[in-house]
Amino acid sequence: MTSFGPAAFQLVLLRRMADFQPDLADEARRRLGASLADQREANKRWQAMVRSPRTRGALARYRSVLGTPESAEHRTIGDLECEALLWPLPLWPDLRFEVLAAPDGAVWNEWLVRAPGAAGPVLESPDDLLPWSATVDEVARAFAPVRPMEGTAPTRWRLAFTVRDRPCVAEFTYGLLQRVATTRDVP
Asked: pLDDT under 50 in the chain at which residues?
Protein backbone atom coordinates (compact mmCIF):
# COMPACT_ATOMS: atom_id res chain seq x y z
CA MET A 1 0.00 0.00 0.00
CA THR A 2 1.59 3.22 -1.10
CA SER A 3 -0.88 5.84 0.12
CA PHE A 4 -2.78 5.86 3.37
CA GLY A 5 -6.45 6.15 2.50
CA PRO A 6 -9.76 4.52 3.42
CA ALA A 7 -8.54 0.96 2.66
CA ALA A 8 -5.55 1.30 4.99
CA PHE A 9 -7.74 2.97 7.63
CA GLN A 10 -10.15 0.03 7.53
CA LEU A 11 -7.18 -2.30 8.14
CA VAL A 12 -6.41 -0.31 11.29
CA LEU A 13 -9.99 -0.75 12.51
CA LEU A 14 -9.85 -4.47 11.71
CA ARG A 15 -6.65 -4.92 13.68
CA ARG A 16 -8.42 -3.92 16.90
CA MET A 17 -11.57 -5.88 16.02
CA ALA A 18 -9.46 -9.01 15.50
CA ASP A 19 -8.86 -9.06 19.27
CA PHE A 20 -12.49 -10.20 19.62
CA GLN A 21 -13.45 -11.56 16.20
CA PRO A 22 -10.30 -12.83 14.41
CA ASP A 23 -12.22 -14.85 11.81
CA LEU A 24 -14.48 -11.95 10.80
CA ALA A 25 -11.51 -9.58 10.72
CA ASP A 26 -9.44 -11.98 8.56
CA GLU A 27 -12.32 -12.41 6.13
CA ALA A 28 -12.79 -8.63 5.89
CA ARG A 29 -9.05 -8.09 5.39
CA ARG A 30 -9.10 -10.56 2.50
CA ARG A 31 -12.11 -8.73 0.98
CA LEU A 32 -9.91 -5.63 0.98
CA GLY A 33 -7.25 -7.61 -0.90
CA ALA A 34 -4.74 -7.04 1.89
CA SER A 35 -2.23 -9.37 3.50
CA LEU A 36 -1.33 -9.53 7.17
CA ALA A 37 1.86 -7.67 6.27
CA ASP A 38 -0.26 -4.92 4.66
CA GLN A 39 -2.32 -4.72 7.83
CA ARG A 40 0.75 -4.49 10.07
CA GLU A 41 2.20 -1.78 7.82
CA ALA A 42 -1.09 0.19 7.84
CA ASN A 43 -1.23 0.04 11.62
CA LYS A 44 2.42 1.07 11.90
CA ARG A 45 1.82 4.07 9.64
CA TRP A 46 -1.37 5.04 11.50
CA GLN A 47 0.40 4.89 14.87
CA ALA A 48 3.23 7.02 13.46
CA MET A 49 0.68 9.63 12.31
CA VAL A 50 -1.07 9.60 15.69
CA ARG A 51 2.15 9.92 17.67
CA SER A 52 4.02 12.32 15.41
CA PRO A 53 5.21 15.49 17.15
CA ARG A 54 4.24 17.35 13.96
CA THR A 55 0.70 15.99 13.97
CA ARG A 56 -2.00 18.36 12.73
CA GLY A 57 -4.65 17.05 15.10
CA ALA A 58 -7.09 14.17 14.92
CA LEU A 59 -9.73 15.91 12.79
CA ALA A 60 -7.16 16.97 10.18
CA ARG A 61 -5.79 13.42 10.19
CA TYR A 62 -9.24 11.93 9.48
CA ARG A 63 -9.85 14.43 6.70
CA SER A 64 -6.47 13.67 5.10
CA VAL A 65 -7.01 9.90 5.30
CA LEU A 66 -10.74 9.65 4.54
CA GLY A 67 -11.19 12.72 2.35
CA THR A 68 -14.17 15.03 2.39
CA PRO A 69 -16.90 13.75 4.72
CA GLU A 70 -20.09 12.46 3.13
CA SER A 71 -21.96 14.74 5.52
CA ALA A 72 -21.29 17.20 8.31
CA GLU A 73 -23.89 18.60 10.65
CA HIS A 74 -24.06 20.73 13.76
CA ARG A 75 -25.14 18.69 16.78
CA THR A 76 -25.99 19.60 20.37
CA ILE A 77 -25.37 16.92 23.00
CA GLY A 78 -26.55 18.17 26.36
CA ASP A 79 -24.97 21.60 26.65
CA LEU A 80 -22.10 20.75 24.27
CA GLU A 81 -21.99 21.97 20.68
CA CYS A 82 -20.12 19.87 18.14
CA GLU A 83 -19.86 18.92 14.50
CA ALA A 84 -20.71 15.36 13.45
CA LEU A 85 -18.81 14.25 10.34
CA LEU A 86 -19.63 10.99 8.54
CA TRP A 87 -17.52 8.98 6.09
CA PRO A 88 -18.52 5.79 4.24
CA LEU A 89 -16.25 2.76 4.50
CA PRO A 90 -16.60 0.04 1.85
CA LEU A 91 -16.35 -2.87 4.32
CA TRP A 92 -19.49 -1.69 6.09
CA PRO A 93 -21.81 -0.13 3.49
CA ASP A 94 -24.67 0.32 5.99
CA LEU A 95 -22.43 2.08 8.50
CA ARG A 96 -20.51 5.35 8.59
CA PHE A 97 -17.39 6.34 10.48
CA GLU A 98 -18.52 9.23 12.66
CA VAL A 99 -16.25 11.82 14.22
CA LEU A 100 -17.65 14.25 16.78
CA ALA A 101 -15.51 17.39 16.86
CA ALA A 102 -15.57 20.38 19.18
CA PRO A 103 -15.77 23.89 17.72
CA ASP A 104 -11.97 24.16 18.13
CA GLY A 105 -11.46 20.97 16.07
CA ALA A 106 -10.69 18.67 19.01
CA VAL A 107 -12.10 15.18 18.42
CA TRP A 108 -14.38 13.99 21.22
CA ASN A 109 -15.44 10.65 19.77
CA GLU A 110 -14.84 8.48 16.73
CA TRP A 111 -16.74 5.29 15.93
CA LEU A 112 -18.99 3.45 13.52
CA VAL A 113 -22.68 4.37 13.43
CA ARG A 114 -25.60 3.27 11.25
CA ALA A 115 -25.78 5.21 7.98
CA PRO A 116 -28.69 7.65 7.71
CA GLY A 117 -31.63 5.85 6.14
CA ALA A 118 -30.08 2.36 6.50
CA ALA A 119 -32.20 -0.22 8.27
CA GLY A 120 -30.69 -1.35 11.52
CA PRO A 121 -31.03 -4.81 13.03
CA VAL A 122 -34.08 -6.01 14.94
CA LEU A 123 -32.83 -6.36 18.50
CA GLU A 124 -35.26 -8.03 20.87
CA SER A 125 -33.11 -10.42 22.88
CA PRO A 126 -29.42 -11.00 23.58
CA ASP A 127 -29.58 -13.79 20.99
CA ASP A 128 -30.08 -11.10 18.31
CA LEU A 129 -26.75 -9.50 19.24
CA LEU A 130 -24.46 -11.12 16.72
CA PRO A 131 -20.89 -9.90 16.19
CA TRP A 132 -20.70 -6.87 13.89
CA SER A 133 -24.52 -6.64 13.72
CA ALA A 134 -25.17 -3.50 15.76
CA THR A 135 -23.70 -0.24 16.98
CA VAL A 136 -23.45 1.17 20.51
CA ASP A 137 -26.43 3.47 19.92
CA GLU A 138 -28.62 0.66 18.55
CA VAL A 139 -27.94 -1.62 21.52
CA ALA A 140 -28.46 1.25 23.96
CA ARG A 141 -31.88 2.06 22.43
CA ALA A 142 -33.00 -1.58 22.14
CA PHE A 143 -32.10 -2.59 25.69
CA ALA A 144 -32.64 0.64 27.64
CA PRO A 145 -31.86 1.39 30.32
CA VAL A 146 -28.19 0.58 29.83
CA ARG A 147 -25.20 1.46 31.97
CA PRO A 148 -22.08 2.59 30.13
CA MET A 149 -18.95 0.91 31.44
CA GLU A 150 -15.30 1.69 30.89
CA GLY A 151 -13.83 -0.13 27.93
CA THR A 152 -10.62 -2.11 28.02
CA ALA A 153 -8.90 0.26 25.56
CA PRO A 154 -9.54 3.76 24.13
CA THR A 155 -11.34 2.34 21.06
CA ARG A 156 -13.63 0.09 23.10
CA TRP A 157 -16.96 0.62 24.84
CA ARG A 158 -19.08 -1.62 27.03
CA LEU A 159 -22.77 -1.44 27.92
CA ALA A 160 -24.40 -3.32 30.80
CA PHE A 161 -28.11 -4.11 30.63
CA THR A 162 -30.65 -6.66 31.78
CA VAL A 163 -33.04 -8.56 29.54
CA ARG A 164 -35.60 -10.94 31.04
CA ASP A 165 -33.66 -11.04 34.32
CA ARG A 166 -30.53 -11.92 32.34
CA PRO A 167 -27.68 -9.47 33.11
CA CYS A 168 -25.55 -8.82 30.02
CA VAL A 169 -22.53 -6.81 28.94
CA ALA A 170 -22.08 -5.91 25.28
CA GLU A 171 -18.56 -5.06 24.11
CA PHE A 172 -17.78 -2.82 21.15
CA THR A 173 -14.69 -1.86 19.17
CA TYR A 174 -14.89 1.41 17.24
CA GLY A 175 -18.60 1.39 18.07
CA LEU A 176 -19.32 -1.98 16.39
CA LEU A 177 -20.62 -4.88 18.50
CA GLN A 178 -18.01 -7.57 19.07
CA ARG A 179 -19.54 -9.85 21.71
CA VAL A 180 -22.14 -10.14 24.45
CA ALA A 181 -21.69 -12.04 27.69
CA THR A 182 -23.68 -12.53 30.84
CA THR A 183 -22.11 -10.52 33.63
CA ARG A 184 -20.91 -13.64 35.39
CA ASP A 185 -18.90 -14.45 32.21
CA VAL A 186 -17.24 -11.03 31.98
CA PRO A 187 -13.72 -10.78 33.42
From this structure: 1, 187
